[in-house]
């Protein structure tokens, strides 16, 4: 099994690991640390789990571009997973399904799981929790069963919730800011997936390229980076109220 994920704040990676459990042979590919820059065709028959965080109801645009350009299959079975912050996953999961099918994979299962919102961190705080992890493990077991009888010649696309055409992703109006705690260790600049933090001035952020993924906040050893300011605080309160109702995992086969 190959497990591919993008997980700037860690919950998508945790979800992928909880789905697969302790399988001996899992090859992990973290697109944050190791972006795809050249064609990668999976060996015949090798199943793949692709797990993506939801950004504005879609999969992150940088991942879409990378996967579409470089990840190829020849009838390999694939599992599509979207991880979202308790607002909604909108069209992210069908987008991932379509992308994988277009590149030669047969999507045999899909799931949307909830995790702490990586911008508004009071939303879905503590998730995935015990119940979520149990559902993730159950989903993994159901996928293994479906994989055991998989025949690419008999594949017809499964139904996954979402709209086609997909809704247009709106940009996020907040970007991480840096305060005086910055000790210029450059961890943020070296790991930013869009190179939006200049090495010479790591306390700044290029607002035109930053995708607000929050990897820099997660990696910063001195908590210098974060979403801050009165406008953010007001937006956070409104968002917390809007997304207070607990959403549950949704599975598709
Ligand atoms: C730029 C951005 C946009 C987001 N958009 C949504 C969204 O549309 N719906 C939602 O429920 N959560 C949204 N989230 C929350 C993430 O999907 C969620 O926190 C996810 O678990 C983050 O994954 P990670 O911990 O692997 O980085 C967004 C987060 C970011 C950073």
TrEMBL record:
KW Lipoprotein (keyword) present: no
UniProt keyword terms in alphabetical order: Iron, Iron-sulfur, Metal-binding
Ranges for domain 4Fe-4S ferredoxin-type: 174-199, 200-230
Pfam families per UniProt: Fer4_7 (PF12838)
The keyword Metal-binding belongs to this UniProt entry's keyword annotation: yes
Alphabetized PROSITE patterns for the sequence: 4FE4S_FER_1, 4FE4S_FER_2
Gene Ontology molecular-function annotations: iron-sulfur cluster binding; metal ion binding
Gene3D superfamilies in the record: 3.30.70.20
InterPro entries for the chain: 4Fe4S_Fe-S-bd (IPR017896), 4Fe4S_Fe_S_CS (IPR017900), Flavoprotein-like_sf (IPR029039)
UniProt-recorded name of the protein: Ferredoxin
